[in-house]
Design goal:
The chain is an alpha/beta fold. The chain has 2 domains: 4-247, Aldolase class I (TIM Barrel, Alpha-Beta Barrel); 293-366, Arc Repressor Mutant, subunit A, CATH 1.10.10. The protein is 39% helix and 22% strand. The strands form 3 sheets. A 9-stranded mixed β-sheet has the order 7-8-6-5-4-3-2-1-9, with helices on both faces. Strands 10-11-12 form a 3-stranded antiparallel β-sheet, with no helix packed on it. A hairpin with a 2-residue loop joins strand 14 (342-344) and strand 15. Helix 1 (30-45) packs parallel to helix 3 and helix 4 runs parallel beside helix 6. The longest helix is centred in the middle third of the chain and has 17 residues, at 207-223. It is globular, with a radius of gyration of 20 Å. The two termini are 28 Å apart. The structure holds iron/sulfur cluster (SF4). Iron/sulfur cluster binds at residues 13, 16-17, 20, 22, 24, 62-64, 97.
Amino acid sequence: MERGGVYIHIPFCSSRCGYCHFATSVSNEQEPYVEALLREIEEVSQSSAIRGLTFDTIYFGGGTPSLLRPDLLARVVDALHANFTIEGHSEFTIEANPEAVGGAARHAPFYASIGVNRISIGVQSAVPAELTALDRSHDAREIRETVAGIREHVPNINLDFIIGIPGQRSIDRSLELISELSPDHVSLYILEIFPGTQLSHLPPPDDEIVERLYFQACDFLRGCGFVHYEICNFARPGRECVHNRKYWNGAPYVGLGLSACSLYAGSRFQNTSSFAAYIHDPAKSRAAERLDDDTRARESIFLALRTAEGLDAASFFRRHGFDPSTRFQGEWDDLIGLGLIVKQGDHYRIPERRMLVGNEVFGRFV
Ligand code: SF4
């Protein structure tokens, strides 16, 4: 039976970064938020679709989940186990920021005691000027201390980095830091500047620089033994993020908390981004959308194409009941002709050197 994932959004941050477009709060109203989260967990778990699911991943994202008080975190984890069927050896990830060094590193023994077995750290860059441009207050010393403190208790570590930071011309120092810290997983995101964020007055990142830095990083990480398994994600063999793979493989997931999204039983559910509306009544703040077969099929295709493995026509057939080669033949022919897709046996995939123009491919299916 296909297993699902649980995502819990913890919106608290110590300050708001200039590029941030996530649902965050600097209010630190942790208790009312967790009370609402507990109500939502109970309410969502009553649905027969959820009762029929087994979960093998838990992911606390944000925001900065490592800012959540340990007693409140423990209450949420207890509620998840009491209300959902969660397997014993599930992957359990929590996101942390290096500036929360007191938090993430000091709380690492507690995290391990409640089952956390993977920590994702928002490093973003090893260069002080780039961190300043991103409004991040940590430095390389805090990054090293955070990683060392966590690793003693939770050995599976991901480091997040960003490419396309204003003023960025080189990625050498960040790659040196990766080599030194030797994480299990690296996520390399391209900075997107969203309207309404503080950075929106700046020109978008230079495509040529982004491309050069991205492919330098791909080559470097491969040389260090990482597998490039998704556009933005690199893992040591066997350390791929089980939770994030569910999004790309079309597996069911339940998102709880502010602005969280769920996908199960053929429907998508979207929680409000209003903190006040969420803590007032999480159930009423959620919008549901029934997905028709065509939408689900198209989403399956473009999500699978984000991965290095690509779209497996046989497993697509099992899920959707038709062969993607025949229904979308015109799209495939065009994309193969443009060199944006290669077909090998039953698999369609984007070659690594074209991954940065993946949006051109995805646009054919949305
Ligand atoms: S730490 Fe992350 S979630 Fe929080 S404000 Fe900065 S970018 Fe947004």
